[in-house]
Amino acid sequence: QLYREARECLTLLSQRLGSQKFFFGDSPASLDALVFSRLAPLLKAKLPNGKLQQHLKSLQNLCNYCTSILSLYFPWDGGESHSPPHPTGWGDLEAEEDPHKRRNQLLSVLVGLVAMLGYAFLSGIVSIQRGGVGPAGRQPITLEEEEEEE
């Protein structure tokens, strides 16, 4: 039922838009921003269930509407699904960073863990005690022994 209502909504939007460039004429309004923010991801994203996406693609005026807004307000994208251009050499830098991403994440976690443990030891929250006999020849009382004494 949800898909049926969503398809109906897309069809009604398509009928309302008609052959206009925007919903209220030649210049965009807040409705255009709202509609585009819902349609563009639906049109461009890879979805596990493509029924609604297929219906949107069948409504040519809504597809043209999204493409027009993408090329007008996001010119580096031009309605295509690739990233904005980088200054010379940045693409190579990104490719080199990817193999080290996992290592950097692991190092960050380890540094955080060492910092937390260091703080816990220095502040006295955690302390290391030797097992065995205490200073006066007495062993520390455990919780079980404490319950037996009561």
Key traits:
mainly alpha, elongated, 150 residues, 0% strand, single chain
Please outline what is shown here.
This protein is mainly alpha-helical and 150 residues long. It has a domain at 1-74. The chain has helices spanning 2-17, 30-44, 51-58, 60-73, 90-123, 143-149.
- Point out poorly predicted stretches: 78-95
Biggest sheet character: none
What percent of residues are in strands? under 5%
Query: Structural class of the secondary structure composition?
Result: mainly alpha
How many E-type strands? Answer: 0
User: What is the end-to-end distance?
Assistant: 67 Å
Shape: elongated
Helix fraction bin: 55-70%
What order do the helices and strands follow? Answer: HHHHHH
Radius of gyration (Å) = 31 Å
Question: How confident is the prediction overall: mean pLDDT?
Answer: 78
Count, helices? 6
SSE topology sketch:
Layout: H1 2-17, H2 30-44, H3 51-58, H4 60-73, H5 90-123, H6 143-149
Structural overview:
- The chain has 150 residues and is mainly alpha-helical.
- The protein has a domain of 74 residues.
- It is built from 6 helices and no strands.
- The protein is elongated, with a radius of gyration of 31 Å.
- 5% of the residues are buried.
- About 12% of the residues have low confidence.
